[in-house]
Write a structure and sequence with these properties.
single chain, mainly beta, four-stranded antiparallel beta sheet, 1 helix, 8 strands, 50% strand, globular, Glutathione synthase
């Protein structure tokens, strides 16, 4: 399993919503059928989240109520 890290600063506020999103291209993480989103804790460990995942054209968006440091795990 491969992963791609992201930071709080990578998130953007969704206009007209209370959510934030981080964006990936399909080429970076695949089609997105087996994505796992994890948030980094204060202990530098990771916990699974059931984040909303949206797809549009060749983009994949991970949405959450606040920005966080984390990673997305995917099949290569």
């Amino acid at each position: 399993m491969a992963h791609k890290n992201f930071r709080k600063e990578d998130f953007a506020k969704i206009e007209g919503s209370d959510l934030y999103q981080v964006e990936f291209r399909k080429g970076e993480i695949g089609e997105g059928s087996n994505l796992v989103v994890e948030r980094q804790t204060q202990n530098d460990e990771y916990e699974n989240l059931q984040a909303e995942i949206r797809r549009h054209n060749d983009r994949i968006f991970i949405c959450w109520s606040e920005p966080f440091n984390g990673r997305v795990i995917f099949d290569e």
